[in-house]
Write a structure and sequence with these properties.
The complex is a heterodimer. By secondary structure, chain A is α+β, with helices and mostly antiparallel strands. Chain A contains five helices and ten strands. In chain B, a hairpin with a 5-residue loop joins strand 2 (about 25-30) and strand 3 (about 35-40). The chains are: A alpha+beta, B mainly alpha. At the A-B interface, helix 3 and helix 4 of A face helix 7, helix 20 and helix 21 of B.
C-alpha cells in the first residue's frame, strides 16, 4: 500500500444498499396504517419506510424481503435494518432478522489533479470505455473485484462495489493509472 | 448401408455392389457372388427410413424480411455518408451478426433501425472514418441517448474494441455543415472553408491542451471553435458584433447552448496566453482578444510555456512569502525540515515530468491546511494555471453533519425509539377515517 496516496485521498462512502429477510409474510396495508413515515405504493406492491436515525429508506415487500438504502457505512446499514425489523416486530409481525447482506456500496473520491480521459481510455482499453457524447465520465470496470469506477476529467471518481473493502481496493488499483494520465500526453 | 468400407466375409474382397433383385436390394460381392447383406422386404426410401410430415411439407426457410430491409437501410446510410465500400461491407456484416443475436432479434423495428445506424458508426470508427454519434442520431431521427445505449450493447455483444474519435478528426466533417462560403453569404461574412477548418482545428487543439475538451460533448466545442475562427480570420467590427445566434442563423446550423459557455472558456484561455505576447501593449480582455487569435495560435506552444513559467514564478514568490511568514510565526525546525523533504520529492517528480507547474505548490498546501481549518480541501484548481473549468469554479459543498460515528451495527435498540415509528391505535383509527373521507369526496 502506498502510504503517500492514502493520507492524501479521502474515500467518502455516500450510500450503502443492504437487504434482509423477515422470514414471514408482511401485510403492507397494516404497515401503511399503523406506521408513521410510511409511503404505500400499491401499484408496485411495496411500502417505503423512512427512518430518522440512521437516515435510511427501506422498501418493504409483502414477501418479507426488505431493501435498505441511504446508510453511510456498513454498520449503519446493519443498525438501521435491525431497527426496522424491531419496528415491524412491534407492529405485530413474527419477524426474524435474517440473511442480512450488504449488496452495493457507492463511494466518491477526489484526486488532487485533473485526468485526461482520452489518454486514460487509450492506455486501459478494453477495461475502460469513454463516450464523450453520452456521458462526461470514463467507465473502468474491474472484473475480479466487481467494482465499477467512473472517472471524471476534474479528478473526481465515483466507485461502486459489493462492499467497502472492494471499493478501497478498487481506488488503490486505479490510482496509479489515473496518476499517469494527469497531464495530456502530447505537449 | 453403403457399399464402401465393407468386406465380403467369404473371400475378403472389398468390391461389393448394390444389386436390385426382385425389388429387394442386396449387397453382393463381385468376386465370389455371395450375398453380404440383404435389405428389408420393404424398400428403404432415399434419405432415411422415416418420412416426417413437417420435413416433407416444410417451406424452405427464407431469410428474415426485416433483416433484408435492415441491410438495405445500412447501405442507404452508408451511401448518404459517402463512406468507402469497405465500411459498407463491414457494417453490413456487423448488422447481420448483431441482428441475429438473442438480445436484438426480438426488439422493436425502431430499435433495429437504430441498430443499423450503430453498425455503420462502429465500422466507421474501426476504419478511421471520423463521424460523431450526433450525426448518426440526426440521420436516424432518434434520441442520441437511445442510440448510445444500443451502440454500447452492440459493442459489448460483438466484442468490438472501437477507437474513440478525437474532436480534431471530426472537425473537418463538421465544418462542412456550415454554409459560410462565398456562395451562401455576402463577401463580408464569407470565409474559405479550408482556412476556417485549419484555424478551428488549431483552436480545438489549444482547448484540448488546456482542459476544456476533456469530458465535454464535442459538438458545442466545435461550434465555439468555428465561431471564434470565423471571427478572427477577419476581425472587422461587423463580424465581432455578430452573436453566436446570428452566426448560426447565417450558417444555417442549429445552435447548441453549451457553445456559449465554451466560447467564454476559450476566450479566457486565449486571454491568459495573449497576456504573454511581448508586442501587445494594451491589456488583453475577452472583448479584444479575438484580434490577437492569429498570433496566439501561431505561437501557442511558446506562449503556453511562457504563461506556465510566469505562473510558476508568481506562485514561487507567494510560497516564499508564506513560508517566511510561517517560519517567523512558529519558529520551529520540524515543519521546515519536512517541507524541505517534500520539496525534494516534488522536484524529483517535477524532473520526471519536466513541467512541474503545480508540484512545488503542494508545499504551501500543508501549511495552509494547518492555518485555515475551515477550508478543508484547498482547491488545487485555483493554484494551477489551466484546469478543468468546474475545478476552478468549484461548487461549495455543504459541510457534512458528522452523524453517528462509531456505529457498530449491533447496538441495543430501545423500545421508545421504535415506538416513535408506530402510530397509536387512536392515531391509526383517525388516519383510516380520514382516508375514507378523502376517498369518498
Amino acid at each position: 500500500m502506498d502510504s503517500s496516496n492514502d493520507d492524501a485521498l479521502d474515500i467518502i462512502v455516500t450510500n450503502v444498499v443492504a437487504t434482509f429477510r423477515t422470514r414471514c409474510h408482511l401485510n403492507l396495508r397494516t404497515i401503511a396504517l399503523e406506521g408513521t413515515n410510511v409511503i404505500y405504493k400499491p401499484e408496485v406492491g411495496k411500502v417505503l419506510m423512512k427512518l430518522r436515525k440512521p437516515k435510511i429508506t427501506a422498501s418493504i415487500w409483502s414477501s418479507g424481503k426488505v431493501i435498505c438504502t441511504g446508510a453511510t457505512s456498513e454498520d449503519e446499514a446493519k443498525l438501521g435494518s435491525r431497527r426496522l425489523a424491531r419496528c415491524l416486530q412491534k407492529l405485530g409481525f413474527k419477524v426474524r432478522f435474517s440473511a442480512f447482506k450488504v449488496v452495493n456500496v457507492l463511494a466518491v473520491c477526489s484526486m488532487p489533479f485533473a485526468v485526461h480521459l482520452i489518454d486514460f481510455t487509450k492506455n486501459n482499453r478494453p477495461i475502460a470505455s469513454y463516450e464523450p457524447e453520452l456521458h462526461p465520465a470514463a467507465t473502468y470496470r474491474i472484473k475480479n473485484i466487481k467494482a465499477t469506477i467512473q472517472v471524471f476529467s476534474t479528478g473526481s471518481i465515483t466507485v461502486t462495489g459489493p462492499n467497502v473493502q472492494n471499493v478501497a481496493t478498487a481506488v488503490e488499483q486505479v490510482y496509479p493509472l489515473l496518476f499517469e494520465c494527469r497531464k495530456p500526453l502530447c505537449k | 448401408m453403403s457399399a464402401a468400407g465393407l468386406s465380403c466375409p467369404a473371400c475378403g474382397s472389398s468390391s461389393i455392389v448394390r444389386d436390385d433383385l426382385y425389388s429387394q436390394t442386396q449387397l453382393v460381392c463381385v468376386d465370389c457372388g455371395s450375398v453380404v447383406a440383404e435389405g428389408a422386404l420393404v424398400d428403404d426410401p432415399v434419405g432415411g427410413s422415416d418420412v416426417s410430415y413437417s420435413r416433407t411439407t416444410a417451406v424452405t426457410k427464407k431469410p428474415c424480411v426485416n433483416l433484408i430491409k435492415g441491410l438495405q437501410r445500412v447501405k442507404a446510410i452508408c451511401r448518404i455518408l459517402r463512406v468507402h465500400a469497405e465500411i459498407e461491407d463491414l457494417s453490413q456484416t456487423y448488422y447481420k451478426q448483431a441482428y441475429q443475436h438473442e438480445s436484438f432479434i426480438k426488439v422493436s423495428l425502431q430499435k433495429k433501425e437504430v441498430l443499423a445506424g450503430c453498425s455503420v458508426l462502429v465500422s466507421c470508427r474501426l476504419l478511421n472514418w471520423p463521424i460523431t454519434m450526433g450525426t448518426i442520431s440526426c440521420l436516424l431521427d432518434a434520441d442520441p441517448m437511445a442510440v448510445g445505449a444500443i451502440y454500447q450493447e452492440m459493442v459489448k455483444i460483438l466484442n468490438i474494441e472501437a477507437p474513440i474519435v478525437s474532436v480534431t478528426d471530426v472537425m473537418e466533417a463538421h465544418s462542412q455543415e456550415y454554409k459560410i462560403s462565398l456562395l451562401h453569404v455576402p463577401e463580408e461574412l464569407a470565409e474559405d472553408s479550408k482556412a476556417l477548418t485549419k484555424r478551428a482545428v488549431a483552436l480545438v487543439e489549444l482547448a484540448a491542451d488546456t482542459w476544456i475538451v476533456t469530458g465535454r460533448r464535442p459538438i458545442p466545442i466545435m461550434m465555439a471553435a468555428i465561431y471564434l475562427a470565423w471571427q478572427s480570420l477577419k476581425p472587422s467590427k461587423h463580424r465581432l458584433k455578430f452573436s453566436l445566434d446570428k452566426f448560426c442563423q447565417i450558417a444555417k446550423v442549429n445552435k447548441h447552448k453549451p457553445a456559449l459557455k465554451r466560447i467564454t472558456e476559450m476566450k479566457e484561455v486565449l486571454c491568459k496566453l495573449g497576456k504573454e505576447i511581448p508586442w501587445v501593449r494594451e491589456a488583453v480582455t475577452p472583448d479584444n482578444v479575438v484580434r490577437q487569435v492569429e498570433d496566439i495560435l501561431n505561437h501557442r506552444y511558446a506562449l503556453l510555456r511562457r504563461a506556465l513559467r510566469t505562473h510558476e514564478d508568481e506562485h514561487q514568490a507567494d510560497c516564499e512569502d508564506s513560508l517566511t511568514e510561517e517560519a517567523a510565526e512558529l519558529g520551529e525546525r520540524t515543519p521546515t525540515a519536512s517541507s524541505v523533504e517534500q520539496c525534494e520529492l516534488n522536484t524529483e517528480v517535477a524532473e520526471r515530468q519536466g513541467d512541474g507547474d503545480d508540484s512545488r505548490c503542494t508545499v504551501p498546501a500543508l501549511h495552509s491546511e494547518t492555518r485555515d481549518s475551515q477550508d478543508p480541501a484547498p482547491n488545487w484548481g485555483k493554484r494551477v494555471l489551466f484546469a478543468p473549468p468546474c475545478v476552478i469554479h468549484a461548487k461549495r459543498r455543504r459541510t457534512e453533519q458528522p452523524e453517528l460515528k462509531d456505529v457498530t451495527g449491533d447496538e441495543e435498540i430501545s423500545d421508545s425509539e421504535i415506538d416513535s415509528y408506530i402510530r397509536t391505535p387512536r392515531e391509526a383509527r383517525d388516519f383510516a377515517l380520514t382516508k375514507k373521507i378523502l376517498e369518498k369526496s
